Amino acid sequence: MNDDFFGPAIPGLFLIEDLVDEAAQLSLITEIEETSLAPFRFQQWTGMRETASYGLHYDFTASTLSEAEAFRPWLDKLARMVEAKCELPGRSIVHALLTRYPVGAAIGWHRDRAIFGEVFGISLGTEAVLRLRRRQPAGFSRYSLPLRPGSLYRLSGEARNQWEHSIAPLQQLRRSITLRTLA
């Protein structure tokens, strides 16, 4: 985890380096590449990244949550591993989002929808930077967390609810798996 002697840099922000090794990353990347991904839609905009949802699907145009295809066996195994590593109750991760980011893709500043609880992200293939910011009277407090390939970040508590996050534009093709619990 990213705890130092004084605790996490932002309460509720944790990092597990090397959750999955290089061989496991290649296997996960292959699974993502063999999945039918669709351009990410947010209201009337279409993003550069491509995604597929499992377990549940959030529609950003209608602001609705619906059932999606069940977790595939490899994805279910990964979700249960994250639950065990993070000491969560079994079967608490109910949503998975597979994402493929081409060069130049980014994720703008946001907080995940309130219907979701904790957020976990597994970075695959290339390094990325998770940026966080919180509004203050005189501007923003900011923090950047480098995400090495194979690492897992966790947003809970203050980091999840009081900070926005984004992913800086990418210099290389990247894939990720985002896992969520319900609030």
TrEMBL record:
Pfam families: 2OG-FeII_Oxy_2. Residues 42-172 form the Alpha-ketoglutarate-dependent dioxygenase AlkB-like domain. This is Alpha-ketoglutarate-dependent dioxygenase AlkB-like domain-containing protein. GO terms for biological process: demethylation. InterPro entries: AlkB-like, AlkB-like_sf, ALKBH4. One of its GO terms (molecular function) is demethylase activity. The lineage of its organism: Bacteria, Pseudomonadati, Pseudomonadota, Alphaproteobacteria, Sphingomonadales. Coiled coil: none annotated. It comes from the Bacteria.
